[in-house]
UniProtKB/TrEMBL annotation:
Sequence ranges assigned to domain Mediator complex subunit Med1 in this UniProt record: 53-407
Biological process terms in GO annotation: positive regulation of transcription by RNA polymerase II
Main location: nucleus
GO cellular component, one term: mediator complex
Matches recorded under InterPro entries: Mediator_complex_subunit_1 (IPR051999), Mediator_Med1 (IPR019680)
Family listed: Belongs to the Mediator complex subunit 1 family.
Protein keywords: Activator, Nucleus, Transcription, Transcription regulation
Pfam families registered for this protein in UniProt: Med1
Protein name: Mediator of RNA polymerase II transcription subunit 1
UniProt source species: Ixodes ricinus
Amino acid sequence: KDNAKESPMENLLEKLRAKASQYKPWGDMAKALRMALMEKHHLVDSADRNRLQKCLDTIQKSIKVTSMQSMIERLDTITRQQGLIFTTGPDGQECFISSDMFYVEVLLESSGEVKDVKIAHHGDPVSCPELTQVLLKGDFAEFTSHLEGLASIYQLNADKKQKTKAYLALQALETDLSNVSQLQSFMNEPSNRVHKSPVGILQPRKGGHPMKLTFFISPYDLLDLESKSSIPLTVDAILEKQLGHSVSVCIESSSAHKLQTMSLISVTNTPEGKNLPSFAALSNLNSTTLPASFVLKLPKPIPMALALVRKIHAITSIECADTTCCQSLLSLIITQASEGKLNGSSDRGLNVTLPDQHHCYYLSGSPDLQGVLVSGVQFTHPTHVPQILVFLRQQLLFNSLIASCVRPASRQNAESSHMFEVSTTSISNISISFEHPLDESLATVDLNLNEITSVKCRIYTLNSDISICSDEYASKVMQRCLSIPVTMRAVIRKAQGQRMRMSNQTDSYYSALNSNGPSY
């Protein structure tokens, strides 16, 4: 055959024959392999071992748990990753995940299904339905989160005896806060319970998740982006959907402080039928000195005015932030609200695009309005909690209003933009200056933020004869949205509607004159 016409298969076989002749005989290869396996000096280094372990863990996460053995292996892996100790009971249907301070007992059916999960700190194990449900759903990431939370309780620079006392202190604090929450149950309006009650909406500690206090909810928190509808503000919705801003009640390592070891609250019944709580001061009988403090932890740091930081320090006697690293409060809020996309220290306007208007906001704050990022507030007594929440609510209300002007995706539209100057001298007052829509003079809207649930708007104009809209109308819009752009849009639309009515009245007047004819 001609070489050009040889089949591809024959070419491939020829290449394989040529390649095979280069290899050693099978016997020699087997001998070389045995010698390599017998060499003791060939060991896997720690880096390779860690990479291999990560690969094995990743593979195991992808394997569905369908038997008792696979459940035990998965729990063993999670335990090792958390630096805890894993053991099994005599019959193999009990698993124990433990540290020197606590243990979690998992009871399994022969099929591998979880029967019960118990947690023991310093006494008999107590069933935890939340952890049982987590494992029944196969949510091992959530189970890991619970283990991390349990371990975090004891992350103190202390011995085992002091760590035990720290847990008892946290338990006593939670008891007092729960009792306060029960006393405020007479508040039927959910908004008042969130924003005006001493501890907000309380969610008890469950498994490894700490006690949570929900203390502020903005209207934007109630928007369901998927269904494009509003979520009703109810206690059940707050707890189920984790709405709003909350703090976690924890204990953390610090310098030495006196912390309670028993409940400090006592309730007095008045002749009017009211229950009035009172708290005992810390003493040698009801407290102990520990290298720790209680802390209200925020999910993420919030910009806070130095004035409020100092007020909190006056209550707790503990610094909650490094006040030597302060900067402009407005700059901090803009940077955080834009997720770093906008430079808060820039003099450029903030553009906001609305359905039928375009706004540009220039923010200016007093040089004295400095702030810092606060990630948590340490305290030592249960009476500190309601006072701290008052200041946190004030700050979040101010932050929400300033952040409402921050829309990184909005683009500049110089031709049709309404210009606004937003001035702040304190976190309780915001002033918005703009051009009067009817007579091209200066108008101002002053916001009073002293009342969390009832922000007040006052509108000032140079010409008192030409009003824009009523203060009550502007206040009502602001209270419903807590948004400067949305409120200013409503104010401008109200003025434009007023101009249209005035124009129609004028046209009607002249039409009437023309139809009646001149009178002499």
